[in-house]
């Protein structure tokens, strides 16, 4: 759906302009503070395994609990943020995430780990993620794609700032001291930022939303009865599943392709690719969000999703070339991570802002389904066929199908939608 670019309203005061950018920075800080429980988890698995005297599979259940609670409770978390406001709920979420680290440092059994790291970090990060996204689509009606992309990128980039300090402290002070110190720091930093968050009020003369955006607010119950929502849900599920198939098995198929240890620019291809991919996975969110603010959500979806399909295809055709593997994997992640800016902005454009946080909570469940399907399906298909090629065939098909659906079905369906 082409979206007309709306210039910043002349009625928006300098104070309001400053306030909404301040809100964006505060949201970015809060998102960065909750990224480590997911993205730095892998650094702690060996320590937990040794201390609790159990196997890796049992330890990894903790991570699954975090993801499931973060995504599948998101409608409830979004409802609470809509009802009680972002300041208190997001501050509580940041503190819960930090508390999960602090308390997990003292557990002596698996159940304790599940109920500390799994429960507190899962619920806490979910509240913050959903709350911040819901807040940004309200403060930036004219730049929803860019604003949601920025804070979503913060969730990915936050771990870049903490990975090396955490790894260093782990080696020198042990995992328990590291969990306590960083749990306290990240919890306090996130909560402090959250205490200055607020919803836009009547006095905030914000610029209008694009001409094609909905001027009516659709409640969750009515949204769930609409075909356009379920089309978006299926599309996001397909993109999440395909992307997580790659993420979860990235190291495995790079080793099978024989490129993991090949030197590229003086570095082994696998860690180099993982580093570059993390950067492009973050950059794509504000970039394609910004693009979608100018050329339309569905047009941008088609470009990004079909670009990912092409990149995966070329990466597989030249899978024995380490340099191509590193470069194309970066393009693959650049074509995937933008789902976290395009889908929330499209949803709010369609169903309005009053229930934006709760509504996105329902859509965000698609990421939870993708996390459950992606890794296991890829592994099962590889085990059954003895090859990664069928897995990548599915990924390419999902990318192409979702890109085509964006233009051929979602675009006219959104245009015709009337609540």
Automatic annotation (TrEMBL):
SUPFAM superfamilies: MFS general substrate transporter. It holds the Pfam family MFS_1. GO terms for molecular function: oxalate transmembrane transporter activity. GO terms for cellular component: membrane. NCBIfam families: oxa_formateAnti. PANTHER family: MFS DOMAIN-CONTAINING PROTEIN (PTHR11360:SF304), MONOCARBOXYLATE TRANSPORTER (PTHR11360). This is Oxalate/formate antiporter. It comes from Bradyrhizobium erythrophlei. The lineage of its organism: Bacteria, Pseudomonadati, Pseudomonadota, Alphaproteobacteria, Hyphomicrobiales.
